[in-house]
Amino acid sequence: MSDEPAVPHIPDEVLNLARAARHVAVFSGAGISAESGVPTFREVQTGLWEQYSAQDLATPEAFENDPDVVHTWYRWRASLIQGVQPNPGHLALAHWQQRLRSSGGTLSIATQNVDDLHERAGAEVLAHLHGSIMAHHCHECGAPAELTTPQYDGAQPPSEPEEPPLCQVCEQGMVRPSVVWFGEPLPMEDFERTAEAMRAADLILVVGTSGLVQPAASLPLLGMERGTPLIEINPESTELSDAMHHRLRGPAGEMLPALMQ
Ligand SMILES: CC(C)NC(=O)[C@H](Cc1c[nH]c2ccccc12)NC(=O)[C@H](CCCC/N=C(/NCCC(=O)O)S[C@H]1O[C@H](COP(=O)(O)OP(=O)(O)OC[C@H]2O[C@@H](n3cnc4c(N)ncnc43)[C@H](O)[C@@H]2O)[C@@H](O)[C@H]1O)NC(=O)OCc1ccccc1
């Protein structure tokens, strides 16, 4: 019995689709960062503020009512993300992107994740549909702002919430993470660019997402207009599973390297 981790079984039909693809479009969610140690949105801790769900905290209202709590929660998540590494799932997509580009093909990545693990794996990301936790701007005037990422350890946000810094430009507004909160519109150009990539693809991968958050979750379905094969990679079934042609039920960190072999 070798100690090599067993390569998950991928049906030949799916392997052939991956080998034949020239223009792959990837739609990723929190599940692809789970094996790096980034809790998925459904799992992420709100610590002392457990009376709030992640979805409650990720709103402009929560920031206006409780700026210290929301600010500190995002700083804690940023420090957690800074402390982890891309996993074989991120790395496989970066390698596949390079391989296709070197033979005149394309692989585009549109992610719902606010982390920078795709980029740190060496991939170019087409769109961060829900923004980036490492970028900041003023909640009032929109001016960009620079914040260093603190080093928090511990599985919970720190108990003493800190207040968000004041904008250096308008000296009125509070600095916030440049993420898209619930009730806020997605950056239109990112949305349009992703829709274009989904329509132009000859293979679409839906990786590590519950497909619960709109309007992003409707983007991969744009491929159906042209009968583009849709492959889901997720240990569990999701809102999108019924629309998929193939479902690889396993962790992205194992399935993606196997799919590229
Ligand atoms: C929850 C849902 C019902 N609500 C919405 O969708 C709302 C409201 C809404 C709009 N249209 C609708 C239509 C129907 C119903 C509701 C709506 N949408 C909005 O508010 C959007 C904005 C939504 C964006 C919210 N921001 C996020 N993130 C940034 C912040 C932050 O991160 O803090 S969403 C956030 O949650 C989402 C979580 O989803 P997933 O990534 O899928 O993660 P999840 O935890 O759910 O699942 C993990 C999956 O991974 C799998 N997995 C686990 N381990 C692995 C593994 N190892 N490998 C592979 N897979 C794995 C699991 O099985 C699971 O399936 C991500 O997108 C993430 O970015 N804005 C808007 O509509 O604005 C309008 C508007 C228009 C014009 C003008 C004004 C307003």
Q: Helix count, per DSSP?
A: 9
Helix percentage? 25-40%
User: What is the strand arrangement across the widest sheet?
Assistant: 3-2-1-7-8-9
Our measurement of the CA-to-CA distance between the termini, rounded to an integer number of angstroms, reads 22 Å
Bound molecules: ligand BV8
Which class do the helix and strand fractions yield?
Answer: alpha/beta
SSE order and pairing:
Layout: H1 12-20, E1 23-28, H2 31-34, H3 54-57, H4 60-65, H5 67-82, H6 88-102, E2 106-111, H7 117-120, E3 127-128, E4 131-138, E5 144-145, E6 175-179, H8 188-200, E7 203-207, E8 230-233, E9 246-248, H9 252-260
Parallel strand pairs: 1-2, 1-7, 2-3, 7-8, 8-9
Antiparallel strand pairs: 4-5, 4-6
The chain binds ligand BV8.
The site of ligand BV8 has 36 residues, from helix 2 and helix 9.
Main location: cytoplasm
Cofactor: Zn(2+)
Domain Deacetylase sirtuin-type: 4-261
Defining key terms:
261 residues; alpha/beta; 6-stranded parallel sheet; 3-stranded antiparallel sheet; 9 helices; 9 strands; 31% helix; 16% strand; globular; binds ligand BV8
Describe this entry's structure for a reader:
The protein is α/β, with parallel strands linked by helices and 261 residues long. It contains 9 helices and 9 strands. The strands form 2 sheets. It has a 6-stranded parallel beta sheet, with helices on both faces. A 3-stranded antiparallel beta sheet has the order 5-4-6. Helix 7 links the parallel strand 2 and strand 3. The mean pLDDT is 93. Ligand BV8 binds next to helix 2 and helix 9.
